[in-house]
Amino acid sequence: MTTREALIGFYKFNKLNLSEDFKSHCVRVYIGCILAPVPNVSARKKYLKFHDLHHIMAGYGIGRVGESEISAWELGSRSCRKPLISIMNLFALSTGFILKPKRVINAFYRGCRSKNLYYLSETMSDQEIDRLNLDEVKKNHLEITNEIKYKMLRQIEFVGYIIISMFIHIFMLVAGKSLLIAESIKNKILSAYSSKKNA
């Protein structure tokens, strides 16, 4: 099976519409427990194929925990070399860690022993990537080492990721709650003004 065939199957199975995704100005992603809109920048579109191939390769789902697991896996496999990817990973990391911490930690360690596909965007054309054999891709990227190099440093790195992700989570919760309160106050003021005007 080629990577293109695997992606088509992945999108069909998960009922994802890639053309609509690419056209939209914003996409909704889990930031903490909130499904929040974020700008659909061109770099995201460029790397989305590889992110989805990681889901397929590693076998993680697209729900809250699955997105946290793949984010942890990508951070473990050094997605930090692509700053935008790292930011997106940090957005999604905290929810799964709160719900299923062991699964997310294991995904990070698994990523530390793997190699992500983002480098292919600089070394191969889209057509060449689409023709790659999925089994070969897995063999050459997924769990290619038995041990984690500098495990203690990688653990400290992961703790840092979790702390940053939790700050993002808390900030979004506070911002979301503040917006709801502001909306409620605005509605009360408008309602009182309207009642006074009609009296």
Report on this structure.
This protein is mainly α and 199 residues long. The chain is built from ten helices and two strands; from the N terminus they run ααββαααααααα. Strands 1-2 form a two-stranded antiparallel ribbon. Strand 1 and strand 2 form a beta hairpin. The longest helix has 48 residues. The chain starts with a helix and ends with a helix.
In percent, how helical is the residue content?
Answer: over 70%
Major sheet: 2 strands, antiparallel
Radius of gyration: 20 Å
Give me the strand/helix succession. HHEEHHHHHHHH
Give the overall form.
Answer: globular
Structural category is mainly alpha
The number of helical runs is: 10
Quick tags:
mainly alpha, 6% strand, two-stranded antiparallel ribbon, 199 residues, single chain, 2 strands, 71% helix
Short synopsis of the structure:
A hairpin with a 2-residue loop joins strand 1 (26-31) and strand 2 (34-39).
Secondary structure blueprint with pairings:
Layout: H1 3-13, H2 18-23, E1 26-31, E2 34-39, H3 42-58, H4 64-76, H5 83-99, H6 101-112, H7 120-123, H8 126-130, H9 134-141, H10 151-198
Antiparallel strand pairs: 1-2
Helix pairs in contact: 1-3, 3-4, 4-5, 4-6, 5-6, 5-10
